[in-house]
Amino acid sequence: MDNTLALFVLLPALVFVVGSDLLYRRIHNLLVLVLLALWFVQPAAALLGFGPWQQLDTLGVFSAMGACLLGAALVLLVGCGLFFLGRVGAGDVKLMAVICLWVGPADQLAFLIVTALAGGLLALGLPLLARIEQLLGHGVQRLARRFPRLGIQTPIVITEHCPQGIPYGLAIVTGALYILFIPIHS
């Protein structure tokens, strides 16, 4: 994916996802909606003659949009099935679908494969990951006590309600970073 806009939009969002999912096991709907809205800037900019899709004519822009949307819709459909089976979180599904838009049809499969592999590695390292979550959670809690005006909530990973399983946002971020920084179509 050769897209500077994606780099500037996705990197801060991915950093936020890591912290939010690792400490609170939550991927915010607002983040997903902002990423979705900003993705629509690409085709709109192309129709105005600039941006990453500027070389495409109008039909090409709509064709590229359709291919991106089709892949994202399939991910959303399969992900909803997995969510209803209790295998994955709703935020994870929505984030994967919106990142599929950003990576484009040529890299969607690679994104999904790398994400699945990263999820498998996270499952293997779950005891270590749980320890890292605890350390980070206690660090955030100390920060919250020191600066109460920041209004930092207690991380859920250090409460009695600590969720089980993998913070899959980390795997999704790994897949997205792979596509951003290790292009397979070079």
From TrEMBL:
Ranges for domain Prepilin type IV endopeptidase peptidase: 9-124
InterPro entries: Prepilin_IV_endopep_pep (IPR000045)
EC number of this enzyme: 3.4.23.43
First-level EC class: hydrolase
Sequence intervals crossing the membrane: 6-24, 31-53, 59-88, 109-130, 165-184
Molecular function as annotated in GO: aspartic-type endopeptidase activity
Alphabetical keyword list: Hydrolase, Membrane, Transmembrane, Transmembrane helix
The protein, known as: Prepilin peptidase
Organism: Pseudomonas fakonensis
Upper lineage: Bacteria, Pseudomonadati, Pseudomonadota, Gammaproteobacteria, Pseudomonadales
